[in-house]
Request: fold
Amino acid sequence: MITSFILAPTDGKSIMDYKSGQYIGVHVDPTMSDNKEIRQYSLSDSPNGKTYRISVKRETLPIAGIVSNYLHNDVEIGGYIYLIPPAGDFFLDVKETNPVVLLSGGVGLTPMVSMFNQLVKNNHQGSIHYLHACLDGKHHAFSSHVKQLAELHNNATVTTWYQTPEKADKLGCDYDHAGSKQSRRIYFTTRNTLLFLWSSSFYASGK
Reply:
C-alpha cells in the first residue's frame, strides 16, 4: 500500500536541510500522462544531511493516481527523479520540555513519523503521545518502527485505532481500539482526561 523511496543527490553532496513535517516536490514525466507532473510528498524521516525519504501510497480508487503509480511501477533502485527543495510552514517547533501530541490518519502518518523520529533523536524531555487511526493492519505503515521509537523514549505512548480489523490483527498488540463510533468516544475521553492538553503542542495530519 505504502512504499518508501530514499533519495540521494547524484553528485554525492549534502542535501538541503529541512524541518520534520515539511515536504518536497517530485517532478516526473510519466509515460501514462501527456504532461510532466509535480506532486508534493511529506518527508517521512528526520533530517540526516544525506538523503530524503518519502513514503507514497499507491492511489487506485476512485481514480488511479498518475504519479503514485508511476513511482511504484516505474522508478527502480538507481533511477533518477527531479526534486523541488523542501518547503512548508507545517513543521515541528516545540520547547524541549513541552508535552507533544501527534495525531494521524491513514497515509497522513508520514510527517508524524518524521516528527517522532526527531523528538526521540533529540531526547525530548516532555512526554510524547502518538495517536494513529487507519483501516486495518494491512494499511498500517511504520507500525513496528513506531513501537520501537516508543521503547527508546522513557515517556512516550502509542495508541492505535483500526476501523475494521482483520482476523490477523491482534487487539492489544497491533491495535488498541476498533470501530469508528468507539473511536470517536475514546478520542474525546482521552482528550479530556489523559493528555492534560493545556501545555501540549499538537500536530495533526490525515487523509
Remarks:
- The helical segments are 66-74, 109-121, 143-152, 180-193.
- The chain has four helices and ten strands.
- The mean pLDDT is 90.
- The chain has two domains: 2-87, 100-206.
